[in-house]
Amino acid sequence: MEMLLRLEQAWQLSLDRVSACGVERVPLGASQGRVLAEHVVAKSPLPPFDRSALDGYAVRAADLVGTTAERPIELQVVEEVPAGTVATHAVASGQAVRIMTGAPIPSGADAIVRKEAAEEVDGTVRILLEVPRGEAISRQGEDAPAGAELLRAGRQIGAAEIALLATEGAETVLVYRRPRVGILVSGREVRPLADRLLPGQIRDSNGPMIAAMVRDMGAEPMLYGQVGDELAEIVPLLNKAVAECDLVLTTGGVSVGDHDLMREAFVQAGGRLLFWKVLMRPGTPVAFAEIEQTPVYGLSGNPAAAFINYALLVQPLLRKLAGWEHVLHRPVKAYLECETTSGVIGMDRFLRAQLVSQEGRLVARVGKGQKAAILTSLAGIQGLVRIPARSEMRSGELVEVYLLREGAIGR
Ligand SMILES: Nc1nc2c(c(=O)[nH]1)N[C@H]1C(S)=C(S)[C@@H](COP(=O)(O)OP(=O)(O)OC[C@H]3O[C@@H](n4cnc5c(N)ncnc54)[C@H](O)[C@@H]3O)O[C@H]1N2
Ligand code: MOO
What we know:
Layout: H1 7-15, E1 23-27, E2 40-41, E3 51-52, E4 56-59, E5 73-81, E6 95-99, E7 111-114, E8 118-121, E9 124-127, E10 137-138, E11 149-151, H2 159-167, E12 172-176, E13 180-186, E14 190-191, E15 202-203, H3 206-216, E16 220-227, H4 231-244, E17 247-251, H5 262-268, E18 271-276, E19 280-281, E20 287-291, E21 294-299, H6 303-321, E22 332-338, E23 348-358, E24 361-366, E25 383-387, E26 398-403
Parallel strand pairs: 5-6, 13-16, 13-17, 14-15, 17-21, 19-23, 22-24
Antiparallel strand pairs: 1-12, 2-11, 3-10, 4-6, 4-7, 5-9, 8-9, 18-20, 20-21, 22-26, 23-24, 23-25, 25-26
Helix pairs in contact: 1-6, 3-6, 4-5
The protein binds ligand LQZAQKY5 and molybdate ion (MOO).
């Protein structure tokens, strides 16, 4: 069975099969990197009261009309309000209150004069300039009025989101459960890190690489080890993994070789194959199945093909499982800078690219080493340039770049 799909079809088919994992409540301090599962609305205005934006003097603006350094005005200082306290006096005409940044505006006052424009001696302050009403006052609710939406569900929680939640007094936060992602590495030649290699063997790099990519998205990798190319070995592990995980990823054995058994293993494990092969290079041989309702991606064994399969196919699916509001990639445009040219092919090509800013322009720098088995050229890249099927790549052209980290750019 060969079911060649365009990338867009693969997204649609796979995304239609999944929905977000359940939710749980976690302490605010443990919410970083998690995905918010509730809309957060301001319970009270932010800031909660009119407050001073400067260290200086709370005054009545009308007292200061016509004031200059040459024609200063003197006001009587009736009180001091540090932040965290409330003035006990109202400010009457001819009076001022010494005030610190963040302190509530005393009643009667309607402007703040910065300390640098005032000279205080023995309870009298000489003001050296005129200020308009409202000067240096942060109004109650100017950041957000009561009832305003502060955060939308489906957003990954970072430092700014934590600040807003803390401001709201959220000791705990409702977040989506971290998807558990099973990883099963296949290939008789592929050995775990600790093994001494025999001739013909290599170390497993896909397992640790995919686990890192999963962790990078805030999901939880679960390692099911390395298996040879034997169905009797693969099938029971697949069954265990689908029972325990929200998504299972395998690598290797999805091409046409005599030992490429992964698709057969999916079926023997009770699964239904939804597609095999996507019109992308590297990473054409990739299979998607459902085993007992758990989505399973059989990624290429070639390291860069597995990386690119993950970046383009698994990431959107995992974002949906993790509860993200926006799951599809949104490519950016950059000017291509490439060292090599390569032939026109009948499928979309994805090139590893460093994104750099040159004279204010975003440039996608594509180096040599774009083959599926080349690992070194993956290090230090930020995106994948898409060269559409049957088109050539030429330096200087504007191309689409798929970012490895979605969320770095807003929607
Ligand atoms: N006759 C054909 N042969 C191949 C085709 C084809 O269409 N016709 N497609 C080629 C393409 S394109 C790719 S990509 C690979 C994909 O092969 P598999 O996904 O079945 O992967 P394997 O054969 O198991 O391994 C490929 C390669 O990667 C190395 N590998 C595997 N696992 C790991 C790992 N965990 N860590 C590091 N390296 C790994 C493995 O040793 C092989 O060298 O098929 C082509 N063949
Ligand atoms: O899919 Mo293979 O990675 O095209 O070379």
